[in-house]
Amino acid sequence: MLRFVSSDKLKFFDLKTIILFSFLVASSLSWGQCQDTSVLDNPVMIPFLTQMVANLTNDLGQEISNRSSFCVEDPSDDWNRAFNFSSNMDFLIDCMQKNNGDIGQKLCTVAEVKFYFNYLMEVSLSSNYLKPNRNCNLTTWVPGCEPGWACGLGANEAVDIREANIIPERTQSCGTCCQGFFCPRGLTCMIPCPLGSYCPLATLNTATGLCEPYTYQLPPGQTNHTCGGANMWADVGRSHDIFCPSGSYCPTTVQSHPCGSGRFCRMGSTSEKPCYKLVSCDANSSTQNIKTYGILLIVVVITMLFIIYSCSDQLISIQTRRQAKSREVAAKRARETARARQRWNAAKDAAKRHIIEISGSFSHRHNSVDSEESSILKQESRPSVDDSALSPIHQAGSVPRQSTGNKKEQIVKDIHSRSQIFKYAYSQLEMEKERALENGNSINISGVISMATNPGVIKRPLIEVSFKDLTLILKGKNKHLLRCITGTLKPGRITAVMGPSGAGKTSFLSALAGKAMGCSMTGVIMINGKKESIHSYKKITGFVPQDDIVHGNLTVGENLWFSATCRLAANMPKAEKVLIVERVVQSLGLQSVRDSLVGTVEKRGISGGQRKRVNVGLEMVMEPSLLILDEPTSGLDSSSSQLLMRALRHEALEGVNICMVVHQPSYALFQMFNDLILLARGGFIVYHGPVKNVEEYFSGIGINVPDRVNPPDHFIDFLEGIIMTPGTSTGVIHSELPIRWMIHNGFAVPPDMRADARALLSNETALAATAAGISAVNMGTAEQSFAGDLWQDVRSTMERQRDKLRLNFFKSEDLSNRTTPNLLAQYRYFLGRIGKQRLRDAKAQAVDFLILLLAGASLGTLAKASDESFGATGYTYTIIAVSLLCKVAALRSFSLDKLQHWRESASGMSTLAYFLAKDTIDHFNTVIKPMVYLAMFYFFTTPRSTFLDNYIVLLCLVYCVTGIGYVLAIFFEASAAQLWSVLLPVIMTLVATRPKTGFVKMLSNFCYPKWALEAFVIANAKKYYGVWLITRCGALMKSNYDIRDFNTCIMVIIFTGIISRIIAYFGLLIFQKK
C-alpha cells in the first residue's frame, strides 16, 4: 500500500505497479538475454517488443488495480499513457546503439526499482541520497553511483530482471545514463522516464556548476566525470526539472518542441491542444485565456434572467390589468342591468297604481285587471336575458332545494371564462344589494337578510361553543390566566370580550381556539353540546391574530384569493369562489386597493387600517362557522371600525358564531355587539350576557354610568380601580365583582374567595347555598426552592413541546364536513404564489447573483489552480464562499414568512405542500448560482477538469447548503441564523481539511465540505496522467482520497441536502411562535 509520512518528509508512496511496469519494460528490452543480443539492433524487432510490453501489462492488470486502485481508476489506460512508447522508440534504438545492443545490462531490476521508491518515502525533502546498498556504500562508490550515470554487469554475467529481492552487482562499464532514462544517485542502473517528461542528456553550466536542465553537480575531484542523463522521477515538487516545461510539448521523453500559435501546452504535455474559438493563444502558451467565454456565459445568464424576470413581471402586470378590465366591465354591466331592473320595477309599480286608481270606475273590468296584474307578476318572476345564466349564491355547506339545486349547480360549473365569472359575481352582488334594500337594509353589501329568512337554503354549519369552569394555569409559573369561566357563545351573534390589560382576554380566545400552549387547562369546552375538540372543526374555524400577519409582497386580492382557494371546499366552482372574494372585498371597503401590494417594513404598501381589514378578510373568505378575532379594531379609526363591524354583523346573520376582543370601543360600535364578556384581572368573569342588559346589571349592584360617559370605558376604568362608587360603607369595589357574578348566577366559588363571598351574602340561606357549591380545590401556592422552580420550568418546556407534537402529528377527527384541496392542489397553489413573490423580489435575487459573480472573479484571480495540489486551495475557498452566500440567501425562504405559514398551517393548510413549493422554486437558484459563480472562477483559474465536472459538484453543493440554510432559518431567529450561516462553512471546512487522525477523521465524515473538496480534487486529478502519475497518487494519498469515490462524494452531498430538508420540514411542524 501507499503511505505518506509527516509534512517534513517526502510526500511519496510505494508504487509497486511502477516497479512492476519497470520490470516489464526492462524484461522486454532485455528479451533474449540468453539469446543473441544482436537482433535488437534490427529496428524490425521493435514492434515485437512493443506487443510484448502490452501483453505483459494486460496480464498484470489485476495486480496493478489491487495495489494502486485508490489513484488509478483504469490501470490499462493510465499505464498506457505513462509507458506506452510504441509511437516512437527512437530513444530505445539510440540507447541500444550506445550500449552495443546490451541494454539489459544497465536496466534496473525489480529489486532496484523497489529499493528506489521505498527509500523515497523515508528521506527528507532536502536529501538527495539513497541508503547504502551493495554497489554504492562507504567502501564502494563507483562512477555509476553518481546521478545521471549507470553501470553494467561483468562480461560473462547475466541478470534476472524479475529478481525482486537481491540487487545485482553492477560496477563495470560505467557511463552516462541514456537519454529517455533516469539514473538516481546511489543506484547504478537506469529506469525509463514516463511519457510527459523530458529526459535529455545534461550539459554542464560552467557558471553554476550544475548539469542542466537538472539540478545535480559533478562530483568534486573527478575531472573525467561528465554530466549524464536525468537523475530522478518523483512528484512535481521534487523533480519538476524532468517534467516537460509549460509552453512546450514532448512527444517522446527525449524531444521537446515549443507550442505553436493558436495552441497551448500545459506542463507535462505530450501533444499540443488547440485553443477554443474566439480565444487567441500566442506561441509558447501554457494555458488559453478563456475569460472571453466566461464573459459570454455571464451575458447569456444575465440575458436569460432578464428575460425571465421581465417577461414574467410583464405577464403578471398584463394579467392583473386584464382582470381589472374584465372586473370593471362586469361591474358596469351588472350596474346597468340593476338600474334597468329598477326602472322596470318603477314602471310596473306605476302601472299597478294606475290600475288601482281606475279600478273603481271600471269595476266591470276588475277581473281582466287582475289577470293583467298576475301576468305582470309572472313576467317579473322570470329572469331577464342578461341574468339567465346566473344562479343564487351557494354558501359553503348550503343545501339548495332538491328541485332546482342540481340545475343551478350545473350552470355555475359551466362558467369558465374570466368575463363570465366576473359577470356572474357582480350580477349576484347587485341582486343581493337589491334584496337588502327591499328588506329595509341600506348597507351596501351582500343580501344575507333575505337568505336568513329563506327556508329553502340551509346556512353554514352552526357551531355553539359552551364552556364551564374553564381555568387556565401557566405551567411552571403556577399563575392563573383564566379562572372559573363559564358561559356560551351562540351562533349568529357577535360576542365582545373586554377587560383591562392582563385580564386574560387573548388567553381566553386561545383556549377556545385550542392554541393555549404551555398551559394546563381544566374545565370543559363543548361544541354543540358535545365534548369534542375544536380542532375537529379547524376547516370551518377562523382565527384572526392580533398582529396583521399577511403577505406583504402580494396584493390584497392575491392574499384573499389564495386563502379562499386553499380553504374553501375543493368541489366549489371557481365562479362561487370569485363571488365570495368579491363580496368580502366590497364588504370591507377594499375595492380601491385590490391590486395594491400590502407592503412590508421596508416597502410601503396599503395603510394600517386597510392592512387590518385584509387580516380579517383572510378568514372571512373561507366562510367560517366560528370566527375568533383578537383585537381586530385596534389601530382603526371610528369609520373603519364601523365598516368592519357591519361586515361582521352580516356574517353573523348567516349563522356565524363571532367572538372578538376589543379595547374600549366607541358607543356606536359597542351597540353593534350582541353579547359581552367582561373580564377582570386574574382571569375572572364579571359579566356575560346581552349588551343591552349590561348597564341594568351593573346599576343593580350600585355601579351607574354617568351621563355622557361611554359605558365600556366606565366599566373598564372601574375594573382598573381608577374610579370608585360613591360612599364608603355601601360602595362596591372592583375586587368584589367576580364574586358578585358567581353569586348572581349560582356558580361555585373558589375556596380562597370564600371569606369575601360570605361578607357579601346578606342571609344564612344564601350562604348555605353558596357554601354547598364551593369547590374543594386547594389554591394555595407554597413557595418553592430554586431547584424546584428550575424543575418546573424544564417540565413546563417539555410539556409545551409535547403539546405541539401532539397537535401537529396526532390529527383530530374532521367533523367539519368540508373537503379542502388535496396535497397536490395546494402544492400547485403554493407554487404560483411563491413564484409571484420571488419575481417581485427580483432585486434581492440580482444582488445574490452579483455577489456570487464578484466572489468567483476574486477567488479565481487570487487562488490559481496549483498542479501540486490539483487546485485544492482554490476549491477550499470556493466551498466556503458558496456555502456562506447560498446559506444566507436560503434564510430568506423561511425567515421572512415564518409567521404567515404558522397562521396558514393552523387553519389546516398543508405544511408539506408549502415546504415542497418553497424548495421547488429555490431549485431555480440552485441551477443558476453554480453557473454564475463558475462563469468567473473556472475561466479565471482554468483547471484541467471540465466545466461540467465542476458544475456538477457545485450544483450538489448549493443543493446541500440550501437545505442546511432551511434548517437554520426554521430553528433559529433571524440574527442567530445569519451568524450560524457564516460560522458553519468555516468551521466545517477547517475540520474537513485537517489531518485525518482519530476523532477528527470520524468528525470530518459528517462535514459536507470534506466530500465536496474530495469531489473537486478527484475531478481535477483524473486529468493528470503520464509523468503526473506519482504526483496524483501522492496528493490523493496525502488527503486520503480515492479516485473511484467521485460518485460516492456526489451522493453523500445530495444525501446531506435531503436529510437537512427532512429536518427542516419536521422543524416547521414542531416549532411555532412562542
Automatic annotation (TrEMBL):
A Pfam family this chain is assigned to: ABC_tran
Cellular localization per UniProt: Membrane
InterPro entries: AAA+_ATPase (IPR003593), ABC_transporter-like_ATP-bd (IPR003439), ABC_transporter-like_CS (IPR017871), ABCG_dom (IPR043926), ABCG_transporters (IPR050352), P-loop_NTPase (IPR027417)
Main localization, broad class: membrane
Keywords, alphabetical: ATP-binding, Membrane, Nucleotide-binding, Transmembrane, Transmembrane helix, Transport
SMART domains given in the database record: AAA
Any one of the GO CC terms: membrane
SUPFAM superfamilies: P-loop containing nucleoside triphosphate hydrolases (SSF52540)
Transmembrane region(s): 293-312, 846-863, 875-894, 951-971, 977-993, 1046-1071
Region (Disordered): 365-411
GO MF annotation, one: ATP hydrolysis activity
Mode of membrane association: Multi-pass membrane protein
Annotated ABC transporter domain residues: 465-707
Family: Belongs to the ABC transporter superfamily. ABCG family. Eye pigment precursor importer (TC 3.A.1.204) subfamily.
PANTHER family xrefs: ABC TRANSPORTER G FAMILY MEMBER 24, ABC TRANSPORTER G FAMILY MEMBER 28
Name of the protein: ABC transporter domain-containing protein
Organism: Trapa natans (Water chestnut)
